[in-house]
Structure formats: C-alpha cells, structure tokens
C-alpha cells in the first residue's frame, strides 16, 4: 500500500466567525483514516482570493492529496475555482450536464434563474467531474504536478454523498489498497474516556489488527475498531473477537454500535417491553422529550412531556404538593420523585422521569449551579433517584442532565 498524506482545506468566512462548525473536516478525516490515509493538517480560510491562493500553495507543498470543501457556490465570495486557477493556470469551462441540471431545477421551481447560478456549473478543463446527487455544484478531481486535488461543496449532505460514492473509491485506487478495511464504532455511556482507556490498557498496548482507538464524543465515549483482512468475513471476524474482549472488561457500559444513539436504544427497549414513558422537565426544558420524539416510531412509547420550569406549574399542572415544595424546595430528591410519579399518573404511562436542578449561573435555594436531581417512577411503584453535580455552562449542564437521564432509563430497562 502506498503511503499517502492528505490535507483538508475548508473555505468559508462563516467558519472563521464561528457561525457554523467545521464538521466536514472531522467526518472526512474519519473516512480517510478508515482507508489508511494520514491527515496531517486541517486548514480553514476565509473568502478572500489572496488568502485562499496562499493556503492552496501551502497545502500543495506538504500533502499528496488536498481535499477542499466550500467556495463552489454562485456568489461573488465563492472563490475556490479562481484561487486554484491562479496557482495552476488551468482553464475553467462550463460543464454542460451540470448546467442542464441547474436549469431544470429552476424550471421545476418555476423560478427565474439568475446569471450567477451559471457559476456553479464551472469546472476545470480535464477534471474528473463528480455529479452532485443532492445539490447543484458538481465536485471535481484534478491532478496537477503530481498532486491530487479534490473539490467538494461545503454542504455536508452533498459532500458526504460525493465522498462515499466517488472520492473514497478513487483514493483506494490511488493508494493501491487491495485488502478490505472494515471499521465499527462501539458506544459506551456512564464511563469517561480516561477510565475506559485505563480498563482497556492491556488490549490497547498490544493492539495490532484490529486497531483500538478510544474517542471522546458529545454523548458518551466510543471505541473505533479497524481491521484489515483479505475478505469482509475475515475482517468482521477480527472485529468481533476484539469486540468481545473489550466487552468482557467494560460491557456494563456498552449500549450500541455505529450510528446507534442512547435515545434509540432506550426507545427500542421501551418497545420491546411494551412500555410508555412521560417526562416532567424543569431545568431541561423539554430537551429529553425532544431527543426521543426525533426518532421515527417514538409515538408508540412517548405519550408526552410537561415542561414545569416555574414553581407554580409544578404545583398547579404537575400537582406537586405546595407543602412538599415548602419543606424540601424544588431542587430536591423529594420534589424530583413527586414530579416523576405525578407525570406517570397524569400522562398514564408505565414510566415517568423527571429533571430538576440548577443550570446556573446563580445559586438556587442554596444549591450551586450544576446541582441536578433525576428521578424515575414505574407504575408498579418502583422508584429511583440520583443526585449529580455537573460542571460547565448552562447548556452543558442541561445537555449532560438529559444524557444522564437516558443512562438511568437504559440501565433500568435492560
């Protein structure tokens, strides 16, 4: 296999302003790693012709493959083609197939096509054109002075389709990789990255094939297993063997693989148990329910939720006793348990879950920011509650609270 280095360049001032996150670079890096291509640099450059040109020169000096996302649109600040032309002198021509597609789109929309939309159909003469199945501007693969340049739209869904259908097969051919490379993500909850790595230190130390890569993610931690073999079956067997060794050590925290999320897992467990759930949400403000109902099929298990941020709503809608609140406060185990039991009754569900606490920045009822109570009540009468102390800003605390709620439900249901 030929050793190839790659660089990913994102073009767009909106990335530098923090208006959107550069998730494209992360995703592309994961795809390249799975086929053995090393990414040595990520770069982000604004919509300025000179700066884009300078970045392209720098990238060409240190990488075999340069993947550029963004700057292929119809507006004046879309300058990717012009910058590359400046350093290569390559002609830019109109791609007839792409132009016809753009015209057809506007005809179907019964909207007039402005002249600047023709810009999206411009390609470099001699480029291998990548059809855009979900948008307008095509992608391109260009060879210049021994380097491979790959130009893709910045819209994630368009970029991902092109990478999967066209770019990855091209890069496999470029590297000469004939063996099968197979990856899977194992997902864990209720354990930190450092603790997970400590538990698996022997396996990680002696890894060879598959490779074991712990990854911290927004919702729990994950391990990426990547195996190389002559066939799919051989690669799968290698992964399954290592996966079992990992689960023997930390299987209690494992909930799923690849694209499975904790909320999908909880929904599946509720469906299998033929149970329904309702939520009483104070500091989470509906975030728990929102995550659940974003999954198709949630209507079979989620009857609804009550956002009870204000004390009067807790008393008058959720029917939490004013005397209980007077005695223990709204930020308490007692209040959380009452909320969980009452929402279970009011919504006629098998399980009720509640969230109350302090998102910050100020203290509430003498409790510091990050103090959280989560309670679960089952129709059978079984109850559990947990107190947590989270660090971070308001949004981080609320997000971690929701995640911990799903962890509690998962452990209860499994």
TrEMBL record:
UniProt cross-references to InterPro entries, sorted A to Z: CinA (IPR050101), CinA-like_C (IPR036653), CinA_C (IPR008136), CinA_KH (IPR041424), Competence-induced_CinA (IPR008135), MoaB/Mog-like_dom_sf (IPR036425), MoaB/Mog_dom (IPR001453)
CDD domains hit by this protein: cinA
Every MoaB/Mog domain range: 7-174
HAMAP family: CinA_B
UniProt record similarity statement: Belongs to the CinA family.
Protein name: Putative competence-damage inducible protein
Source organism per UniProt: Lentibacillus halodurans
């Amino acid at each position: 296999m030929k050793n190839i280095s790659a660089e990913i360049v994102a073009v767009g001032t909106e990335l530098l302003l923090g208006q959107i996150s550069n998730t494209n670079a992360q995703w592309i890096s994961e795809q390249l790693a799975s086929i053995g291509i090393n990414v040595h640099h990520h770069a982000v450059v604004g919509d300025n012709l000179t700066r884009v040109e300078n970045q392209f020169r720098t990238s060409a000096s240190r990488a075999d493959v340069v993947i550029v996302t963004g700057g292929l649109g119809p507006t004046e600040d879309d300058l990717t083609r012009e910058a590359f032309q400046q350093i290569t002198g390559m002609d830019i021509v109109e791609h007839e197939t792409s132009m016809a597609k753009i015209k057809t789109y506007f005809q179907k929309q019964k909207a007039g096509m402005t002249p600047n939309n023709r810009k999206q159909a411009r390609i470099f003469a001699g480029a291998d054109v990548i059809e855009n199945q979900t948008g307008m501007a095509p992608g391109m693969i260009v060879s210049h002075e021994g380097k491979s340049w790959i130009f893709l739209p910045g819209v994630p869904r368009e970029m991902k389709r092109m990478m999967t259908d066209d770019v990855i097969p091209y890069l496999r051919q470029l590297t000469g990789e004939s063996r099968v490379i197979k990856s899977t993500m194992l997902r864990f909850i209720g354990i930190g990255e450092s603790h997970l790595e400590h538990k698996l230190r022997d396996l990680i130390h002696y890894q060879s094939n598959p490779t074991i890569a712990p990854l911290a993610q927004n919702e729990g931690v994950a391990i990426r297993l990547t195996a190389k073999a002559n066939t799919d079956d051989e690669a799968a067997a290698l992964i399954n063997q290592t996966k079992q060794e990992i689960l023997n050590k930390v299987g209690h925290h494992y909930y799923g693989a690849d694209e499975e999320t904790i909320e999908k897992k909880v929904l599946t467990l509720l469906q299998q148990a033929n149970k329904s759930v309702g939520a009483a949400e104070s500091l989470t403000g509906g975030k728990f329910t929102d995550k659940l109902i974003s999954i198709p099929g949630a209507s079979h298990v989620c009857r609804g939720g009550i956002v009870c941020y204000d004390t009067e709503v807790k008393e008058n809608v959720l029917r939490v006793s004013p005397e209980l609140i007077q005695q223990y406060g709204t930020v308490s185990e007692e209040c959380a348990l009452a909320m969980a039991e009452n929402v279970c009754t009011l919504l006629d569900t098998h399980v009720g879950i509640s969230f109350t606490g302090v998102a910050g920045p100020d203290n509430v009822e003498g409790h510091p920011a990050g103090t959280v109570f989560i309670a679960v009540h089952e129709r059978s009468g079984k109850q559990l509650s947990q107190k947590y102390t989270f660090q971070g800003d308001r949004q981080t605390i609320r997000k971690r609270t929701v995640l911990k709620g799903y962890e509690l439900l998962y452990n209860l249901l499994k």
